[in-house]
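User: Hi! I have a protein structure encoded as tokens and I'd like to know what sequence might fold into it. I'm fairly new to this, so please keep things simple.
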């Protein structure tokens, strides 16, 4: 069972005292590798016996790590972190219920969900800890300058950066999910429908699809001064109406970034190369690059 599945399964069983205990453990993880069991009752404001009961429940629900060495201590795991983020989105009136998983990848889990108004949305749990720490630091600009950083906090930074990108881009009419809310490592966004371009053996009109992709890269670059910086056929979806949706923006950079020219060219090269290889649509890289950059 994935971390998100664990959180979804047990979230409704959590009582206010359980969530309070999780919050206290989270708040003290920067001070301790494992929060000492004997200090938690005072921190959470519960009697020792009540605290022991809460910790045992959280351990049974697999929402914390329990460590026994020179002392007994606790820290959040990914499922516990999920529960805190989900609770915040529920309290904010963003999230009412979960549906089926929409995708489970190396760096994120995405779920179908409902708002209290019964509108379908997507909930994305960032999971940067699934890749190696060295590789994550190498490719994530917002992490590279930090020497000591937990997997959970890495994922939170990724969610914050992606939500920031969506908020900057969405007003310009770019084909991406509507940003709704963000808490910790979770982003709530408009519904995601469709399959990756990479999954299609054939496209109804590949030239039209390529033109739409390039048009959106151009709008992001010219109107919002933003470059995706990790664009490929794996993060462009073709929706049921045959229009595209560009997802996965946590690596975005701005147009004045020192690597802007190189990364923009790489994005366009990836897309033009994909359409040439798989769909026999020939477009010169320089022509596509000039189109995207033209004011």
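Assistant: Happy to help. Inverse folding works backwards from shape to sequence: for each of the 295 positions I chose a residue that suits the local structure. Here it is:
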């Amino acid at each position: 069972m994935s971390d998100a599945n664990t959180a979804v399964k047990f979230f409704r069983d959590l009582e206010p005292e359980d969530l309070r205990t999780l919050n206290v453990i989270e708040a003290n993880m920067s001070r301790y590798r494992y929060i000492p069991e004997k200090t938690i009752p005072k921190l959470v404001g519960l009697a020792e016996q009540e605290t022991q009961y809460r910790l045992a429940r959280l351990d049974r629900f697999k929402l914390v790590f329990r460590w026994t060495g020179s002392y007994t201590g606790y820290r959040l795991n990914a499922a516990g972190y999920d529960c805190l983020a989900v609770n915040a989105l529920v309290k904010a009136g963003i999230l009412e219920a979960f549906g089926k998983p929409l995708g489970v990848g190396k760096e994120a889990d995405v779920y179908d969900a409902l708002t209290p108004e019964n509108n379908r949305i997507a909930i994305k749990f960032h999971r940067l800890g699934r890749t190696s720490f060295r590789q994550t630091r190498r490719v994530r600009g917002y992490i590279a300058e930090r020497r000591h950083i937990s997997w959970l906090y890495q994922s939170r930074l990724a969610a914050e950066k992606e939500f920031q990108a969506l908020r900057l881009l969405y007003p310009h009419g770019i084909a991406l999910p509507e940003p709704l809310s963000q808490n910790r490592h979770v982003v709530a966004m408009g519904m995601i429908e469709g399959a990756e371009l990479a999954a299609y053996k054939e496209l109804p009109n590949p030239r039209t699809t390529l033109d739409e992709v390039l048009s959106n890269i151009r709008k992001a670059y010219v109107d919002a001064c933003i470059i995706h910086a990790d664009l490929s056929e794996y993060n462009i979806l073709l929706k049921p109406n045959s229009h595209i949706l560009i997802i996965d923006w946590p690596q975005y950079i701005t147009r004045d970034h020192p690597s802007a020219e190189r990364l923009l060219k790489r994005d366009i090269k990836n897309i033009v190369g994909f359409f040439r290889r798989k769909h026999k649509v020939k477009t010169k890289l320089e022509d596509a690059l000039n189109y995207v950059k033209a004011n």
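A useful reference point when you look it over: The chain has eleven helices and 13 strands. Feel free to ask if any position seems puzzling.
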